[in-house]
Specification:
about 375 residues, alpha+beta, Jelly Rolls, eight-stranded mixed sheet, four-stranded antiparallel sheet, about 30% helix, about 20% strand, Fe2OG dioxygenase domain-containing protein
Length: about 375
């Protein structure tokens, strides 16, 4: 069955609702959430309904909670500024698991064009988008809606263009021409920034600046260009369900619409868009190897009647290790352990960790739990 009209989707509300059939029809359309809007739907399919959302209170705002912003200007030439940045990043990674960076060296023109490039791809004619639609994990460029479409319940209100940045990046000719040049340029610069931030994180742990890099944390990068179309019923669904990131670190570029929230002290705190800033968050694996010194925290994205919202998330982890396997074992860093600070996690491989993460789906819990001692 291929989706051809909104009436087919509205049938989801009747007593004979078949979620598997709805998900299958959605996937076979190969046009994502954007395709639903293009077909004229005014009510969202039931597979998007979020049972976790308090519909009477979309978010909690508290002026006492502000996501830290770290200025990276001068960190390579001024020792005082360098030390301040290390301290701020260390504090944010321990208390928040999230922070924003400004004056990071990537020009605003590159950031703006990256957002525009991802927008251009998703707003092409559906017949053009379909050519890139795939769930094949070995492909280096994929267009899809919801990586866990068949396992996650609910499904998120967003579409994605994903591409492998490192190692063994996608060939230029495999990247959609409409955004090819900027994807290649942005990917190079985000890798460079990733190296810098891992050096600062290493220092914040009291380690040699190259420690986390030598450990392989920056070896792989996979980028996802998310497109959150306007939602006709935003009170019923989320753009991204509550989750933590199963990587070492994520660098996120978001447009000016907002919607990203972090769970801090039982409050959902907005991550306000700052033009020219990039959002950095600690991933599950960095929490594991730092023995809970740095924290990977829950975050989500609200849906909205306005949009589309565009964001690009660059995940620092070698996904090749999941497909091909690797003998590299990760556990709490020995230099951080002591009699007072005993290991909290068992050793694991990226393949083992990611296999668990993807099999459990977005169930509202962290993937770290089974790895605790």
């Amino acid at each position: 069955m291929v989706i051809t009209s909104s009436s087919e989707l509205e049938e989801a509300s009747d007593s004979n609702y078949d979620r598997n059939a709805e998900v299958k029809a959605f996937d076979e359309s190969k046009t994502g959430v954007k395709g639903l809007l293009e077909s004229g739907v005014t009510k969202i399919p039931r597979m998007f309904y979020s049972g976790e959302l308090n519909l009477s209170e979309r978010s909690e705002k508290d002026s006492n909670f502000t996501i830290p912003i770290v200025d990276l200007a001068g960190i390579h030439s001024n020792l005082t500024l360098h030390v301040e940045a290390v301290e701020q990043i260390g504090s944010a990674s321990q208390k928040w698991g999230f922070f924003q960076v400004i004056n990071h060296g990537i020009p605003n023109s590159v950031l703006d064009e990256m957002i525009n490039g991802i927008r251009r791809f998703h707003e092409q004619d559906s017949e053009v988008r379909k050519q890139f639609y795939s769930r094949e994990k070995k492909r280096k460029v994929n267009y899809f809606s919801n990586a866990g479409l068949f396992t996650n319940n609910p499904v998120d209100w967003r579409d994605t263009l994903g591409f492998l940045v490192a190692p063994n990046p996608a060939k230029p000719e495999d990247i959609p021409e409409i955004c090819r040049d900027i994807v290649i340029e942005y990917s190079k610069k985000i890798r460079e920034l990733g190296h810098t931030i891992f050096e600062l994180l290493s220092e914040a742990l009291g380690l040699n600046p190259s420690y986390l890099i030598q450990l392989g944390c920056v070896e792989g990068t996979y980028a996802l260009g998310h497109y959150y179309p306007p939602c006709p019923e935003p009170e019923l669904t989320l753009g991204a369900t509550k989750h933590t990131d199963a990587d070492f670190m994520t660098i996120l570029l978001q447009d000016q619409l907002g919607g990203l929230q972090v769970l801090h002290d039982n409050h959902w705190v907005e991550v306000p868009p700052v033009h020219g800033a990039l959002v950095v968050n600690i991933g599950d694996l960095l929490q594991l190897i730092t023995n809970d010194k740095f924290i990977s925290v829950f975050h989500r994205v609200l849906s909205s009647q306005t949009g589309p919202r565009i964001s690009i998330a660059s995940f620092f982890i070698n996904y090749n290790d999941m497909v091909e396997g690797s003998s590299m074992v990760y556990g709490p860093i020995k230099e951080l352990l002591s009699e007072e600070n005993k290991p909290l996690y068992k050793d694991t491989t990226i393949k083992e960790f990611l296999t668990h993460h993807f099999s459990k789906g977005l169930d509202g819990d962290t993937a770290l739990q089974p790895f605790r001692l």
